[in-house]
Design goal:
26% strand; 6 strands; 35% helix; alpha+beta; 164 residues; 4 helices; 6-stranded antiparallel sheet
Length: 164
């Protein structure tokens, strides 16, 4: 496995496939879910601009528990249905919040986060958890970001050997 270094391009059609290729290179031949999830979070956090947190909350005993992440320390337990992550887990839908301060019940993990994109992770029809991505910029995530990050999340959900 070779490390691939970031490109100077911020064009989504070039950048997102580049990010996915990097993630694939880290996952190739590795079966440890913690190592794979940690490298995936770090790759997204490092290669995308204007992010301050990327990580996984995994469903355990009907709550979301903090998993591997890139960024500052975070809330360790989120109830299904609470905050952006819990709402995404409950509805099974991606939630793109332009301004987290306007989201009812937002759970503030980092005072510098202003927008958030949360993508539910499913494997075999079962909810694994969510991929949570935060930015200090209001309105950071557009429809193009969402589309590509959903593709990356789908790849991660299907490829990583998540714990049962």
């Amino acid at each position: 496995m070779a490390c691939i270094y970031p490109s100077d391009s911020q064009e989504p059609e070039l950048l997102y496939p580049y990010i996915l290729d990097n993630i694939k290179s880290f996952l190739e031949g590795e079966t440890d879910w913690i190592a794979n999830a940690a490298n995936a979070a770090a790759t997204i956090g490092f290669l995308l601009h204007d992010l301050n947190w990327v990580g996984f909350y995994l469903k355990r005993d009907n709550v979301l528990k903090l998993g591997p992440f890139w960024g500052k320390p975070a809330v360790t337990t989120i109830q299904i249905g609470n905050g952006v992550c819990g709402t995404s887990a409950e509805t099974g839908k991606t939630i793109n919040v332009k301004d987290v301060h306007q989201f009812p019940g937002h759970i503030a993990c980092d005072l510098f986060s202003n927008s958030e994109l949360v993508i539910p992770l499913f494997k075999g029809g079962q909810l694994l958890g969510v991929l949570d991505i935060d930015s200090p910029e209001i309105g950071r995530f557009n429809e193009v970001d969402q589309k590509y990050l959903e593709e990356i999340a789908l790849y991660l959900a299907e490829t990583i050997q998540w714990p049962q």
